UniProtKB/TrEMBL annotation, chain A:
Its main location: membrane. Keywords: ATP-binding, Kinase, Membrane, Nucleotide-binding, Phosphoprotein, Transferase, Transmembrane, Transmembrane helix, Two-component regulatory system. It is an enzyme of class 2 (transferase). It is found in: Membrane. It comes from the Bacteria. PANTHER family: PEROXIDE STRESS-ACTIVATED HISTIDINE KINASE MAK3 (PTHR43065:SF10), SENSOR HISTIDINE KINASE (PTHR43065). This is histidine kinase. It catalyses: ATP + protein L-histidine = ADP + protein N-phospho-L-histidine. It comes from Litchfieldella qijiaojingensis. Belongs to the sodium:solute symporter (SSF) (TC 2.A.21) family. The keyword ATP-binding applies. Gene3D superfamilies: 1.10.287.130, Histidine kinase-like ATPase, C-terminal domain, PAS domain, Sodium/glucose cotransporter. Its EC number is 2.7.13.3.
From TrEMBL, chain B:
Keywords: Membrane, Transmembrane, Transmembrane helix. The chain crosses the membrane at residues 7-25, 31-49. It comes from the Bacteria. The keyword Transmembrane helix applies. This is MFS transporter.
Length: 986, 58
């Protein structure tokens, strides 16, 4: 009571300077981000609800209605306890569609800019008394501390500082729907200060005035009983109405809506606030009766302080007054900051921008920012003006209740947004106008003009005669609002756009977005279209921002991706200029192409939404979703390529096997048109889609892996009343089968050539025998040494020809498996020489050096011709693998009861994966058409007939490259031995 | 979702029955702190349900 005006100014300015310092510390990063973004900070920031009403108004109410003051806290606590079913769906909508205020949400849901304007006007009118209440408590507190007759100018200075703070730290971003760490931290500090101050004041009462809880209880049971008897108890109807008003305030009041939904916080933080905010409110509510009873005990309530400001009478000490003042200032400043921020955004989007659309602005962002700043200052000043002209004539309870009753008129609309898709714009507007009219006549205009409240009690509600005005007006306005809303909604038609928006907003939303192509064909194209509305710079920035958020390329032309880009740009513009203006811009400049085709459901989008909301499904829906996921997985992981097209030719599915075969990731093509798929898929799939046949067999296509042969099967899905049509295509890779077929044809051709060669060799044999005989005769017929030498040479040459022919015939016959072959001792050196002789006949590999290192006396039991065949095969493989000038060595040595025979080359070696399959038919390391893949299986079977063993070392032990074929053959054949398979390490 | 229904039931049940509670709190025989104890119990219940919900969604 004895503080100077200057002292109080310093105290208030000092506190506001502390807020500036806190904001600066957060902004500069001096406070760790994990601390700033802790869910507790969010909860404390939500404590902005506890405005100056919670500090002073609650005391006033508690002195009048006892525990009835708890309605202010319990209503909001109830709303937050229901956060999962009530607040989370709103948060989902506001985040998805970038809606930052109640007006945005209503304008979006009811598809009308005028609805947004109406809600903004109602909010502004309803909030003015609450703003005035904040300023009034400041003025009254200054008056109580200083005794100043007119504290309003100091209150104006505080208002100016608060507006400056809001402009500096709250309106820095153009977007309303952005996270303001600085703002959240500052409001949290505000909440912390008012909570601490209230708890200390409560403790002063409990332990300073009373001697603890027991003494308090004794006072209440004794001397205090008379004081409590003066309290008017609320009847059940009034109590429930109060609860409902404060319940609605939790998500309808502009500052609460802004703090709960527009500050983009996580779902987890909101769920945690479901219990932590009620806890905060409990701690705020607890000291209120303690302060009241403490003041009553010491008789402070009879000193003319006014019930609202009894905290100033708890003690004569300066610090108690300071605490009471700071608690009020903290509460009022937080509320003023957030209300001005939220309301300025609403006015900007739904009044200013609607009246003056943002035609081409050289710097749109700057223009919007300055408009917003001016509006913030106007809102705060409006609150001060209302206090000066109206507020001073009323108590806090009257001002507060007028505000809460007015805002509650939006409750039917909000419940319809969430739970009644059948509600329409006409019903909502009619209901709201009806409710607001009753409220204006019953509470607001009497507040403003001092005229008596105009409350008409309809027949049947005579019980309201004599009830408090706020109660009668609240009940009548809400009842009229709800009835009109329901009747008009049922009686009038709902537009298609509204129905779609209603589905998107509904809690159990069955989101069935439609699929239509856009006029714009790529992200770059979007920029050109939007530049007409926003200017080139802003259009570029907005499109780039949306592309970045969606991780899209500006050249992506997929219809699905373009639709998502359009949605994202609309949501972003909504955050910038409100949903009405954003929708207008997008509809005008990014229109859909409606060339006669009907819109179909966007299945891919529906699926992606279902995936995102899976954890919310329960019961049958969850079971069905499980089934859907199972079938989806079955198709996605089918080992055969699968893709599906909608009726409009848009690709809906591209499974894993097809992604692997094509090398194209499903996410990059799903949603595109068939003709925009990369080559050769556009043409190939187009052929099967357009063709009359359901199957296309072994179509040659050139893929990254080389040439493949694909077989395609098509099934057309019929388009029924409730069923979506389309085409599903299975794609099988038949390349392996095609190559095997080619190899078989090649092998058959080689076999024919072999037989032909054997026949030719046989035919050559006869004349050669004749030539040899004639040469022999010539030797007997002459003694001429020259002729004798010539005859000798002819005979040597014919012998050589005979040997070659003999080898050729023998090799040709050796390919056939002959049962009962008689084995005889075979000299490996000789067999190797024969094989080398045949190999040398081939024209290729002339520069390869062959070495026969088999000892001449080493023999095995076997079929010489078939062993030659083995060596010819192995040597020809070695020759093909050898580099120019390479060496191929055939070596043999005794090993156990047999002989080991090796063929070693210096080639590049054989891949381990192929090596294990080389003895299987048609496995080859040679280029297609060069090898049959039959040589080594033949070798394997011949060695098996000889009861030998064979394996491949590649590279051989101790070498870095090359291949060694190791064979072991028994020296003697054992009777009764009946081994069909050779041992090998394959 | 089942957890949410429990909370829905509790809050609306509490809303309907709250006048009865109010008259009980106002009677002189009642300890002054009883409303706050009931409120605290409701918060504890809410924390417990929140933990249960987290487990459900895992």
């Amino acid at each position: 009571m004895n503080a100077s005006l200057g002292g109080v100014f310093l105290l208030g300015a000092g506190y506001l300077a502390l807020l500036f310092a806190c904001a600066l510390a957060v902004e500069r990063g001096w406070i760790p981000l994990r601390l700033v973004r802790h869910p507790a900070v969010y909860t404390l920031a939500l404590g902005v609800y506890a405005s100056a009403w919670a500090i002073y108004g609650s005391l006033e109410l508690a002195s009048q209605v006892g525990y009835g003051y708890l309605a202010y806290y319990l209503g909001v606590a109830g709303a937050f306890l229901l956060a999962p079913v009530l607040l989370l769906p709103i948060q989902r909508m506001t985040r998805t569609y970038q809606l930052s205020s109640l007006a945005d949400l209503f304008a979006f849901r009811f598809r009308s800019r005028w609805v947004g304007t109406l809600v903004t006007l109602v909010s502004a009118l309803a909030v003015l008394p609450l703003l005035a209440l904040q300023v009034q408590t400041m003025g009254d507190a200054i008056h109580l501390m200083t005794g100043a007759a007119s504290p309003s100018m100091l209150a104006l200075v505080f208002c100016a500082l608060i507006a400056l703070f809001t402009i500096l730290f709250g309106a820095r971003h153009t977007r309303l729907h952005a996270r303001h760490d600085t703002l959240l931290a500052t409001i949290a500090l505000d909440s912390l200060v008012k909570l601490a101050a209230m708890l200390i004041l409560g403790a002063v009462a409990l332990f300073g005035i009373f001697d603890g809880p027991a003494d308090l209880q004794a006072w209440l049971d004794g001397p205090g009983l008379a004081r409590q008897a003066e309290v008017t108890h609320l009847d059940p109807g009034q109590w429930r109405t109060l609860l409902l008003l404060f319940f609605a305030a939790a998500f309808l009041m502009p500052h609460m809506f802004h703090m709960t939904f527009a500050e983009t916080l996580s779902r987890r933080a909101l769920l945690q606030a479901g219990w932590s905010l009620p806890l905060f409110l409990l701690l705020m509510a607890l000291p209120v009766p303690l302060i009241l009873w403490g003041a009553q005990r010491i008789g402070a309530d009879e000193s003319g302080l006014g019930a609202a400001y009894l905290a100033f009478g708890l003690s004569d000490t300066w610090w108690v007054d300071t605490l009471a003042f700071l608690a009020g200032l903290a509460a009022a400043s937080g509320t003023l900051i957030i209300i001005s921020l939220a309301l300025s955004g609403m006015i900007l989007n739904h009044l200013v921008l609607v009246a003056h659309p943002p035609a081409y602005q050289p710097d749109l962002y700057r223009w919007l920012r300055w408009l917003r700043r001016a509006l913030i200052a106007a809102v705060v000043f409006g609150g001060w003006l209302f206090y000066r002209t109206v507020g001073v004539h009323h108590d806090l309870t009257t001002l507060g209740l007028a505000s809460f009753v007015g805002m509650a008129q939006c409750l039917p609309g909000m419940l319809a947004v969430l739970y009644w898709p059948g509600a329409n714009r006409k019903g909502m507007v009619a209901g709201l106008l009806m409710g607001v009219l009753i409220w204006l006549l019953g509470l607001w205009l009497p507040l403003l003009t001092g005229m008596p409240a105009l409350v008409v009690i309809p027949p049947g509600l005579e019980a309201l005669q004599g009830a408090p005005v706020w109660y009668a007006v609240a009940l009548e306005a809400l009842a009229a609002n709800i009835l009109t809303f329901i009747l008009v909604s049922l009686a009038t038609r709902t537009s298609e756009g509204e129905r779609a928006a209603a589905e998107a907003c509904s809690v159990d939303a069955v989101i069935r977005p439609k699929r239509l192509p856009l006029m714009a064909s790529s992200g770059e194209d979007f920029k050109h279209h939007l530049a007409e509305a926003l200017g080139e710079e802003v259009a570029n920035r907005e499109v780039d921002r949306a592309l970045g958020a969606l991780h899209m390329s500006p050249h992506d032309g997929r219809p699905y991706a373009l639709r998502r880009l359009r949605d994202r740009i609309q949501a972003n513009l909504s955050g910038l200029m409100g949903p009405s203006v954003a929708q207008d811009i997008v509809d005008r400049f990014l229109p859909y192409r409606r060339d006669g085709q009907a819109a179909t459901d966007d299945i891919h989008f529906v699926e992606s939404r279902l995936e995102a909301y899976r954890s919310r499904l329960t019961g049958l829906a969850r079971e069905l979703d499980g089934l859907r996921r199972y079938h989806r997985r079955t198709l996605a992981q089918l080992p055969i390529g699968l893709c599906a097209f909608g009726d409009d030719g848009e690709l809906l599915m591209w499974n894993d096997a097809l992604a692997e075969l094509s090398g194209i990731d499903g996410a990059s093509v799903i949603g595109s048109r068939r003709n925009s798929l990369p080559a050769p898929w556009a043409e190939l799939l187009g052929r099967v889609l357009a063709g009359p046949h359901s199957h296309l067999y072994k179509q040659p296509v050139e893929l990254a892996k080389g040439q493949r042969y694909l077989t395609l099967h098509k099934a057309v899905l019929s388009n029924g009343d409730e069923e979506r049509g389309g085409t599903v295509i299975l794609i099988e890779d038949h390349s392996e089968m095609k190559w095997l077929e080619d190899e078989l044809v090649h092998a058959a051709r080689l076999a024919s050539i072999g037989q032909l060669a054997a026949g030719v060799a046989h035919e050559i044999g006869n004349p050669i025998t004749g030539i040899s005989s004639l040469a022999q005769n010539l030797r007997y017929d002459t003694d001429d040494p020259d002729l004798l030498e010539t005859a000798d040479q002819i005979q040597q040459l014919t012998d050589r020809v005979s040997r070659i022919v003999g080898s050729l015939v023998g090799f040709a016959h050796g390919g056939r498996h002959v049962h009962g072959t008689t084995f005889a001792p075979v000299t490996l050196h000789h067999v190797t020489e024969e094989a080398l002789h045949l190999i040398h006949l081939a024209r290729s590999g002339q520069d390869v050096v062959y070495r026969n290192q088999c000892p001449p006396d080493l023999t095995v039991e076997g079929d010489a011709q078939r062993l030659i065949q083995v060596l010819v095969n192995l040597l020809s493989n070695a020759r093909d693998a050898s580099p120019e000038g390479g060496e191929v060595v055939v070596a043999a040595e005794p090993e156990g009861r047999g002989v080991s025979l090796t063929v070693t080359d210096e080639g590049p070696g054989i891949d381990a994966r192929v090596r294990d399959h080389l003895f299987e038919p048609f496995t080859t390391t040679k280029a297609p058409g060069e090898g049959t893949g039959l040589g080594l299986p033949l070798v394997y079977s011949i060695i098996a007939e000889h009861h030998g063993q064979i394996h491949i070392d590649s590279p051989p032990l101790g070498r870095e490259r090359g291949t060694r074929i190791y064979m072991w053959l028994p020296t003697t054949r054992e009777d009764g031995e009946n081994r069909d398979e050779p041992d090998s390490d394959r | 979702m089942y957890v949410y229904r429990i909370m829905l039931f509790l809050v609306f049940g509490g809303y309907l029955l709250s006048p009865l509670l109010m008259s009980g709190w106002s009677s002189p025989e009642t300890a002054w702190y009883r409303p706050f104890v009931i409120w605290g119990v409701l918060i504890a219940l809410s924390i417990w349900l929140e933990q249960k919900r987290k487990l459900d969604e895992r």
